[in-house]
Structures
1.
Amino acid sequence: MHTLSSLALASVFLVQVLAASVHPRGLAPPGWESFICLIDCRTTFGLPLLTGPVFADTTGMTIEKCAAFCDSQAVPYRFMGITDGSVCSCDNYFESIFESVSDSSCNTPCPGNPLEVGGCGGKELNNPVASTYRKINATIPALVPSVGLWNGLGCYNDSVSARALQERVEAGNTTVESCVAACQAQGFTLAGLEFGRECWCGPELQHGSRNSGNDNGLDGSNSNHRIDPNALNCDMGCQGAPTESCGGPDRLSLDSPSMRALERRVDAGNVTVESCVSACQSQSFTIAGLEYAQECWCGNEIMPPRGPTSQRACSQACVGDNTEVCGGPDALQVYF
Ligand SMILES: *[C@@H]1O[C@H](CO)[C@@H](O)[C@H](O)[C@H]1NC(C)=O
Ligand SMILES: *[C@@H]1O[C@H](CO)[C@@H](O)[C@H](O)[C@H]1NC(C)=O
Ligand SMILES: *[C@@H]1O[C@H](CO)[C@@H](O)[C@H](O)[C@H]1NC(C)=O
Ligand SMILES: *[C@@H]1O[C@H](CO)[C@@H](O)[C@H](O)[C@H]1NC(C)=O
């Protein structure tokens, strides 16, 4: 009994000493903020926490050197990590295999500046641990609103064991545009980008995939995937266009063709029924449609699944003549 409580006391004391010796969260190079302490399986399982550019310096590493290295890359990086006192790496996301550990596991003084205690990672048992940092005010890749006639639908969940979209296709140096084009060429009506470079197509979503909004994976169900509390789900830039969102781990940036009843939107000036009809006629279309007060659409057939709707849906005045009706939101006033 006596021995046990001494041991307990001793370990409490040890933890306190360790905690006191670790630099508090907040130690960060200019332009960066300290993030969390994470296991890095780079040497143990060959699975790096961050897979971007990397450099090692066993004698002179500091947090400033690592920041300068990541900041000097052609592509902007949102995260950097220093592992086990010597390995600096950059990336825009964390790989899916990692584990967060307590701050006290980041306990290695940086070899190039011993005052930077806890800034350069450490070891937890035998596992290398990384001190990670997040770029302040970094631009998060944006969902592309539309590509041609395809519209961005948002961020949807996926999983390796039950794919939301069945067909993986080749999309070159992946961008939203290249993936949409690849899916369209194969006759699919959904295109999804994942993990920055994967292009998936399908006729419909499967396995309960749904818009995952802005949940950040901290609810526990997929906490091993997303740890950036401020990030959107689909926050990985595309391999071929880093400012475009190309999903994330287990996250698809999803696109589908808009369901347009008429195929072509044309410029009809200050839109009236007359200006739209004549714009469509001059391009040899047989049908003109007015929508949303100011949009003029032309075609030679009305594409399914469209049919007449109530006239009340077409209630917006034309921008060019407010005595005329120019359709409504998602409702076309059609002229043959
Ligand atoms: C980040 O953005 C805020 C608000 O625009 C600004 O006040 C702050 O100086 C910026 N910080 C850095 C490091 O760029
Ligand atoms: C998407 O998330 C929902 C709700 O968490 C889940 O039921 C579904 O299985 C997930 N689907 C895929 C494809 O991951
Ligand atoms: C892919 O696109 C990126 C961004 O435009 C570019 O930096 C890179 O060199 C391209 N890679 C290949 C293999 O073409
Ligand atoms: C469009 O037409 C309306 C109604 O005739 C007129 O008030 C408006 O100034 C016109 N706008 C332009 C840009 O010509």
2.
Amino acid sequence: MVKKVVASTCRECFVGCGSLITLEDDKVVRISGNPDHPHSRGAFCAKGMNGPLTQLYHPKRPLRPLRRKGMRGSGEFEEISWETALQEIADKLVRVKLEHGSTALAGAVSNQYYDRGVAMSLLLRSFGSPNYMINQDMCTGCRSTAAVVTGITAEAGSEIRTAKCIMVVGRSPSESNIVEWMDIKKAKADGAKLIVVDPRRTQLAQMADIWLQVKPGTDAALALAMLRTIFDRDLIDKRFLDAYCNGTEQLRERVQRTSVEEAAETTGVPTESIEAAAEMFATEEASCLVLGHGIDAQANGVYTAMSFQALLAVTGNIDRQGSNRIYKAKSGFRDYVKIVKDPKFRMPAEREGQIIGGDTFPLWSGPLSWGAASHNPSVIDAIRTGHPYPVRAMYISGVNIVCTYPGMQNTIEALKSLDLLVVASDHITPTAELADYVLPKTTLLEEEGVFVEYGAPCLSVFNRAVNPRGEVRSDMEIAIALYEALRVRGGLDYELIPWKTPREFIDFQLQDTGLEFDALNVGYHAYSYEYGTYRTTGFNTPSKRIELWSRHLDEAGYDPLPDYKAPDYAAADKDFQFVLMTGIRTMSLHHSRFRNHAWARRGQKAPELRINTELAKSMEIANNDWVWVETRNGAARVYMQAKLGDDVAYNVVATGMGWWFPELRGYDHGALNFNVEAAIPYGPVFDPISGSPESRNCACRIGKVSEAELASGQFAEIGQKSEEIA
Ligand SMILES: Nc1nc2c(c(=O)[nH]1)N[C@H]1C(S)=C(S)[C@@H](COP(=O)(O)OP(=O)(O)OC[C@H]3O[C@@H](n4cnc5c(=O)[nH]c(N)nc54)[C@H](O)[C@@H]3O)O[C@H]1N2
Ligand SMILES: Nc1nc2c(c(=O)[nH]1)N[C@H]1C(S)=C(S)[C@@H](COP(=O)(O)OP(=O)(O)OC[C@H]3O[C@@H](n4cnc5c(=O)[nH]c(N)nc54)[C@H](O)[C@@H]3O)O[C@H]1N2
Ligand code: SF4
Ligand SMILES: [Mo]
């Protein structure tokens, strides 16, 4: 037996842990953490150990391109060659262009932090369409937009290890981020103070010195009250504010509008706790802030993030040891986001200006926006209605939008109505079920790539562990092939993909770094971090100073200072008295992934709804009972299993996301009945700046499932043995 270990990086999630892939006779047998990796230092989770390995050898994995045979959604596909697939897809795309124009193609990808973000955006732009959909309106969009408009693009990263005070807002690292979980536990053991802001009593909250149990969606009121306490008690870092920030006085005035007592009323957090947290954060020698996904996808998300980020500036906790770092790239390295935003790879402004959503959300979808992406629900509406113009074809890669976009019924209606739907995936998801063509994708173990891990900092490397199975191809290979097929047909408006192979693309990323990809076989390249460079470079804003009063916001017609706005659920409604929190992570699941993996299905068998024990008792709901959930603005009822506990308040219930069951029949595989996105809408309540839907916290009602419903539904088939689950 020949044994081999390949050092690489896990990218099942954005944490990006260094990995060691063990092969025996060219077969992957084990994946574990790499103790030498500068970012993760050996940390590794169940998803990283099991996910890629199971998917690589999954018996039901598509290994050749598939073409739909029956009706859309009938599940009938036939295998075809790549040549046929590419020719037919390119012909059809050219036809769509001739009939409806270049903007009639939209593309959806998970986010911008993978090479598929580059592959997708440049393919679309070459075709002539600005309608590039990313899911970051729901994921980091509010936090990133806030950071960009003020210049506080600072993250805790590895500083957690040396911080004296760590404040964690809307993040549950024991469920979502193994590296932060490890770092915070270690820092705490070394004496750091911990403040946790979360409506749920998470494992982290149980460790906290101060746990601020906010009512969901009220965080901005809390942060503004903390700012007020810091100003009132004169705990500000005056030297830092005077030297590097604009808008300090305007912010000071703004926070005077509300008292700490009023904030306590709004948030449900006692005044003493708000003040104690503010004092702790401002007076410890070095404090850092971790902002999580809990404050994204909220209608006041950008101002919420701005309010917390302002705490860093007023206390001077920026770019010094134990504070938040300004992310600095390896000199010369071209990361994915940089390439997507590089003027060299953009379309003319006039064409970019046609992006769907750009007029309503200029800082999200406009040419100057952070996202440079279209507004997803507006694209879904354009497909359904033809307004502002027709969108008739879609290419979807690395995202399962039926299962992860709110308003599932609209997504399905839109996808079914398209003239052409192409989905690249490594398994047949409910989204792929609706495709005309499914293009078989490599798993990470069959690809190579390099990205920057700013928090460490280092470059993290994917080294190919095995040759691709069957005829699967990587996202970049597929994009290059489609680009070529379109080019020879005169189907490109611009020529923006200069690379002929994925390796050429990687060489382009590394070209000005002096590094060679083949020399990165240890799986990473660490580079040094220098604190305080802003003293010479300034911050990335028009004034080169941190803009607590944001000129970007002002110029786009928004209030330039952060403020509090009550969440939509807070409007009194006797029929919808509870708050449904969605998207709570579970260690063995990743969004909609792994439902076809036996190891993951053992971890959680069906969607769960956390219910306060007292509330459950009053409704005669017992542990594991099936319950239904409906939201005020949602289209349908969905079903979950009750899990009783005191980790959520009496009026709050909490669930995960992404559910579908490969073993259930129908193109949706039960998603319409069991996935929370079928019960919540994609708008019309949006953050006015980032266009993020209020999908984290929704007004809801719940009830116990009746015997009749139990007998008629798909409940009994869940978890049955199926060839689809390996
Ligand atoms: N196992 C696993 N890990 C994952 C993922 C996964 O699917 N599975 N997904 C990855 C991705 S893409 C992301 S974006 C991250 C997300 O991971 P995190 O950033 O940790 O975010 P969540 O787990 O969504 O929510 C974190 C906490 O926010 C709280 N929360 C909800 N609403 C509010 C609110 O209004 N205010 C406050 N302060 N807190 C609130 C929730 O109770 C929860 O404990 O996880 C990544 N890691
Ligand atoms: N209600 C509610 N909705 C949410 C959230 C929430 O908290 N609440 N969270 C949101 C967040 S933070 C996120 S990030 C999104 C996640 O939304 P998605 O990105 O749709 O989530 P995944 O289930 O991870 O889907 C990724 C798909 O891509 C495939 N895939 C994985 N790697 C690759 C690859 O390299 N190439 C290609 N082509 N395919 C690949 C996977 O097999 C899977 O089918 O969901 C969002 N939706
Ligand atoms: S946290 Fe787990 S899934 Fe995410 S990169 Fe690390 S090992 Fe992979
Ligand atoms: Mo995310």
